[in-house]
Amino acid sequence: MFKKFLAKTLLIKLALFYAIVVLLMMVFQRNFLYYPFGKILVIPEDFQEVILKTSDEVEVYAWYKKPLEGQKTILYFHGNAGNLAGRTDRMIKFANQYGVLAISYRGYAKSKGSPSQDGFFADANSALGFLNSQQISTKQIILFGESIGSGVATKLASENEFAGLILEAPFTSIESVAKKIYWFLPVSLILRDHFDSAKLAPKINTPVLIIHAKGDKIVPFSEGQKLFELFNSPKKLIALDGDFHIAVSPDFLIKSIKEFMSDKLESY
């Protein structure tokens, strides 16, 4: 009898502990998904600071370098950690060949608000609106999304046709990645921000370039492969050796983008 009582008590305690863990993840999940740390102290030469106003009245900070005549413009969406300052080398390299607009998501350095999927989508639309106000059409814009930014770029590409869609270390959805990490949690039931690129990919007509390390330890390469297979538009997958996440050199990125944009995409 006593052993049964102990066993029952232990099960109840384990159940309560599990329930508390699930509750904490429900409440604080965005703290695990978004890491807006660091400050922006300087901006790259030839860039200007821009403040965008979103549809829900949030002020979003961005860097903008106007394209020269005949140049396309890269609309850049960074990953979930850090801020634009950690992408300075990329911005400088991109600006040598393209116009650039890189936004700091809501809740990140110098932007107002708090991070969320729908908030990021609103930020992206405000960025597109800004470029349109500069007489830059979607056909002159190359979307670039790294990691969680791939979900933002894919969403935008599902609503308009662009010159190109470049995805670095993308996933099919946050849910798919989270289930691999938090296999012990009911992810499908508690997840708030899905970034479901798999659902959007078949709708996209824009040419797609995916760059992903085969040994990526944060977003598995299999995620990028699966997403690649879902696109029906002209596409190319560059599989890199290594176990890094988004540590591709700016020179390699520029080379890959230029080759992809200049090639006859029908061959893909």
Characterize this entry briefly.
The chain contains 9 helices and 8 strands. With 268 residues, the chain is of the alpha/beta class.
Notable characteristics:
disordered C terminus; eight-stranded mixed sheet; 268 residues; 9 helices
Can you describe this structure?
This protein is an alpha/beta fold. It has one domain: Alpha/Beta hydrolase fold, catalytic domain (Rossmann fold, 3-Layer(aba) Sandwich). It has helices at residues 2-33, 88-95, 117-133, 148-157, 174-181, 187-190, 197-200, 221-230, 250-262; strands at residues 48-53, 59-65, 73-77, 99-104, 141-146, 164-168, 208-213, 235-240.
Blueprint of the fold:
Blueprint: H1 2-33, E1 48-53, E2 59-65, E3 73-77, H2 88-95, E4 99-104, H3 117-133, E5 141-146, H4 148-157, E6 164-168, H5 174-181, H6 187-190, H7 197-200, E7 208-213, H8 221-230, E8 235-240, H9 250-262
Parallel strand pairs: 3-4, 3-5, 5-6, 6-7, 7-8
Antiparallel strand pairs: 1-2, 2-4
Multimeric status of the protein: single chain
Instruction: Provide the spatial order of strands within the biggest beta sheet.
Output: 1-2-4-3-5-6-7-8
Q: Please mark out the parts with pLDDT under 50 across 5 or more consecutive residues, or reply none.
A: 264-268
Number of strands: 8
Biggest sheet character: 8 strands, mixed
